[in-house]
Amino acid sequence: MAYGRKVREDDESVSYTFAIEPASPEGVLVIPVVDPDAWYVDGSDARPTAALRVLGKAVLTFRRSGRWPELVAFQS
After folding, report:
1. Does the CA dihedral 7-13-11-64 come out positive or negative?
2. How far apart are CA 59 and CA 21, in angstroms?
């Protein structure tokens, strides 16, 4: 499981808190709009699995709908 909640969106990037437990965010995932593969966790060099799962679900939703989702839930 992984959960994300959108906290910011502008023309350059979109940001989500991410977590395995929705009530306990682990950090903030930043997704550059032009190059989602250049994602990063704000203030860290880590690339946690929970952030990667939120990234995948958010990008997939964006590509299908043209809008970044407010909430993301990933279940494997």
Report:
1. negative
2. 21
Can you tell me whether residue 6 is helix, strand or coil?
Answer: strand
Task: Name residue, tokens 């959108």.
Answer: 6
Element (H, E) at 19: strand 13-19
SS3 assignment, position 13: strand
The partner residues of 29 in beta bridges, in order of sequence, read 16, 41
* Whether the predicted model's global pTM rises above the 0.85 cut: yes
For CA atoms 35, 51, 66, 11, the dihedral sign is: negative
Q: What are the tens digits of pLDDT across the range 18-50?
A: 999 988 999 999 999 999 999 999 999 999 999
